[in-house]
Amino acid sequence: MSILVTGASGFIGSRLALEHKNVVVSASRNVQANSDFFIEDINRHTDWQTPLSGIKSVIHLAGTAHNSSDCHRKLLECDYEGTLKLMRDCGKYGVGRFVYISTVNVYNNFYSRHPFGVKTQLSPTTVKAEFCVSIENNLKEISNELGIELVIVRSPLVYGPNAPGNFRLLTKLVKKAPLLPFALVKNRRDFISVQNLVDLLIVCASHKNAAGHVFLASDNETVSTREFIDAVAYGQGKKVLQVPIPIGFMRFFGRLAGKTRMLDQLLDDLEVDSSNISEILNWTPPYTMKEAMAMLRTEVKYK
């Protein structure tokens, strides 16, 4: 089976292309990346005929970066219009399955005290998550129209060597700070390692039972922020002392510093129900969180 992976120079895509190079054909907008195809721009005008030649499934990872300037325009042109154009070209050139990577941020976790599941009502609270909901809905319509199998994977924060965004900031914090204020934090959050996500995506691209389903990815290890930070420290070979700072105190000073959203991500719950993955795909994460975190200090850089 040949699988086209877009965004192959990114954090997840580069690992996917490297670990499964026997079945993966890679496409990237990074001219310096060692990809099979260079795609200058992903938008409603992109011609996917050559990259899609002989492809059975597509894993679509390309998208707008978290810190991108002019974010709304890029979300519209690349994430929304570009994704829908790619799926229509899949129908045009005989690709049978499309795997779309979405986010658990399509749910509103502010008032939630229960795990999110595939039947939980969507209520996005960020612009990017709103676009993801719109993309999911339109992909379902195209799937029905063109007869292409669609698989949607909603992912929480993905961690691992060279991870961008909040995890990179967290690893730097753990390296530099001997004391951290999360001893009293007993929230419940789900994460997934890049190793486990890559394994799941390959299964979603190839398993006969995956078609038509939405999956919420996770390590199947719900942990608190305190436990997650301890795991990061273990992975880096560091020791961090967690001190008991009242949560209300942290939220107050977080608001004063303009870091409310960051504090919410550290202190609130975000738990997902991934049970349908094992039921439908007979898949369980191949790595525990401890095993995956240990790779933070043992793996060479992919980029």
Automatic annotation (TrEMBL):
Q: Which residues form the NAD-dependent epimerase/dehydratase domain?
A: 3-213
- Which Pfam families does this UniProt record tie to the protein? Epimerase
Q: Which InterPro entries match?
A: Epimerase_deHydtase, Lipid_A_modif_metabolic_enz, NAD(P)-bd_dom_sf
Specify the signal sequence span. Answer: none
Protein name as catalogued: UDP-glucose 4-epimerase
Species:
Vibrio splendidus
